[in-house]
C-alpha cells in the first residue's frame, strides 16, 4: 500500500514537471518508515532539507514512522526546485583520501588524468585537491556538462558535432522531463579543453615562488666572505624584518616540520611542495602552524 501511494504521487509530479510554469506548489507525498531522517529523505529525492522543511509545518525536525511528508518539486515562483544532478549512467564516485592524487586515481581505475578532468571539469587544481572531495570516475574519456533543457542539449550537440544517437547510447538516455532541470550529460570523446587550459594556468601559479616576507636581504645565497681570508657557502637567503612580521609560504605545499631546530636554525618550518622540493623558514621569533 505504501508503494502504491508513493508511485501515484510520483506519476502526478512527473506530469507536472512537463508543465514547469503550472502548479507551482506541486509535491510528492512520502510516508516515513522506521529509521528514516529528513537527511535521508532529502538525499533520496536529491533536494535540500531546508526545501522539505519549508513545505511542511514541522514542530520538530525529528520525524516519526508513518508520518506523511510533502516533498516539493516546484518552488513558489513556478520554477523547478534546485535538485542535485545525478551522475551519468556507468560513472563511479571516489572520495579523495589523504595523500591521493589524480595520478593515483588514473592508475587505480585505468583511465587517463584527462578523462578524470573531463568528468570533473570544475575542480580547482590538478595538484592540491581537498581531502573528502567527491570525484566522478568515467567509463571512458569525454566531457560532462550540465543541461537544463532540450534546447540547450541540441545546442551542445551542434557545438561538439555529436549525433543524438551517440548521446543516447552514452547516457542510457533520459526522458525529456528530466531535462527541465539540471541534468548531467556525458559527451564521449570530447576533450575538456577549457578545463585543461584553466588548470594549466592554476598549476603555473601554484608552482611559482613568491617572496615569503618583505625586508632587507642581509646575506645572499652562495659563497660569502667571512673576512680574515675565510669564506663559506650559504645555502639560503637571510631577510631581516621587524619582530613580529608575518612570514608566508613561498609556494603551496604541506608542512612537514614545525619545531625548534638543533642544527642552528632556531624556530624552523619546512614545507614540501608537490614536485618534491622543500622550502625552509628559519630563525623565526615564533610560529603558529602545525605539521600536516
Structural features, described:
This protein has helices at residues 2-17, 38-45, 49-55, 102-109, 113-119, 150-160, 164-171, 193-206; strands at 27-31, 68-72, 92-95, 134-137, 142-147, 183-188, 216-219, 222-227, 230-234, 238-240, 254-261, 266-272, 278-284. It contains eight helices and 13 strands. The strands form six sheets. The protein has a three-stranded antiparallel β-sheet with strand order 11-12-13, with no helix packed on it. Residues 1-24 and 74-83 have low confidence and may be disordered. A hairpin with a 2-residue loop joins strand 8 (222-227) and strand 9 (230-234). The radius of gyration is 28 Å and the shape is elongated. The two termini are 54 Å apart. It has three domains: 2-72, Roll (Membrane-bound Lytic Murein Transglycosylase D, Chain A); 92-206, Roll (Membrane-bound Lytic Murein Transglycosylase D, Chain A); 216-284, no CATH class. It is an alpha+beta fold and 292 residues long.
Form type? elongated
Tell me the number of strands. 13
As a whole number of angstroms, the C-alpha radius of gyration is 28 Å
Strand content is: 15-25%
Query: Span between N and C termini?
Result: 54 Å
- Detail the poorly predicted runs: 1-24, 74-83
> By helix and strand content, what is the structural category?
alpha+beta
CATH class term of the largest domain: Alpha Beta
Pattern of helices and strands: HEHHEEHHEEHHEHEEEEEEE
CATH architecture of the largest domain: Roll
Number of helices: 8
Q: Assign the CATH superfamily of the largest domain.
A: LysM domain
Mean pLDDT: 77
**Which fold name corresponds to the CATH topology of the largest domain?**
Membrane-bound Lytic Murein Transglycosylase D, Chain A
Largest sheet composition: 3 strands, antiparallel
Q: For the largest sheet, list the strands in their spatial order.
A: 11-12-13
Task: Please give the share of residues in helix.
Answer: 25-40%
Work out the oligomeric state of the chains in this entry.
single chain
Number of domains: 3
Amino acid at each position: 500500500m505504501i508503494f502504491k501511494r508513493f508511485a501515484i504521487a510520483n506519476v502526478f509530479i512527473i506530469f507536472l514537471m512537463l508543465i514547469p510554469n503550472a502548479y507551482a506548489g506541486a509535491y510528492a507525498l512520502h510516508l516515513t518508515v522506521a529509521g528514516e531522517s529528513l537527511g535521508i529523505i532529502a538525499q533520496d529525492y536529491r533536494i535540500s532539507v531546508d526545501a522539505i522543511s519549508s513545505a511542511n509545518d514541522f514542530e520538530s525536525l525529528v520525524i516519526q514512522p508513518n508520518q506523511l511528508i510533502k516533498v516539493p518539486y516546484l518552488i513558489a515562483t513556478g520554477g523547478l526546485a534546485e535538485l542535485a544532478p545525478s551522475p551519468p549512467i556507468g560513472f563511479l564516485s571516489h572520495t579523495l583520501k589523504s595523500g591521493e592524487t589524480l595520478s593515483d586515481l588514473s592508475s587505480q581505475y585505468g583511465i587517463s588524468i584527462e578523462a578524470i578532468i573531463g568528468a570533473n571539469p570544475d575542480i580547482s587544481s590538478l595538484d592540491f585537491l581537498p581531502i573528502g572531495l567527491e570525484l566522478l570516475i568515467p567509463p571512458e574519456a569525454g566531457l560532462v556538462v550540465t543541461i537544463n533543457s532540450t534546447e540547450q542539449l541540441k545546442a551542445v550537440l551542434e557545438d561538439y558535432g555529436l549525433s543524438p544517437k551517440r548521446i543516447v547510447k552514452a547516457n542510457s538516455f533520459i526522458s525529456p522531463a528530466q531535462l527541465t532541470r539540471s541534468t548531467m550529460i556525458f559527451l564521449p570523446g570530447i576533450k575538456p579543453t577549457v578545463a585543461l587550459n584553466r588548470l594549466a594556468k592554476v598549476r603555473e601559479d601554484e608552482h611559482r615562488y613568491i617572496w615569503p616576507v618583505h625586508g632587507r636581504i642581509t646575506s645572499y645565497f652562495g659563497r660569502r666572505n667571512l673576512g680574515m681570508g675565510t669564506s663559506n657557502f650559504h645555502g639560503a637567503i637571510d631577510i631581516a624584518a621587524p619582530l613580529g612580521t608575518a612570514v608566508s609560504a613561498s609556494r603551496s605545499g604541506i608542512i612537514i616540520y614545525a619545531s625548534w631546530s638543533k642544527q642552528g636554525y632556531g624556530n624552523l618550518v619546512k614545507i614540501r611542495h608537490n614536485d618534491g622540493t622543500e622550502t625552509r623558514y628559519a630563525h623565526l621569533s615564533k610560529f603558529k602552524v602545525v605539521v600536516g
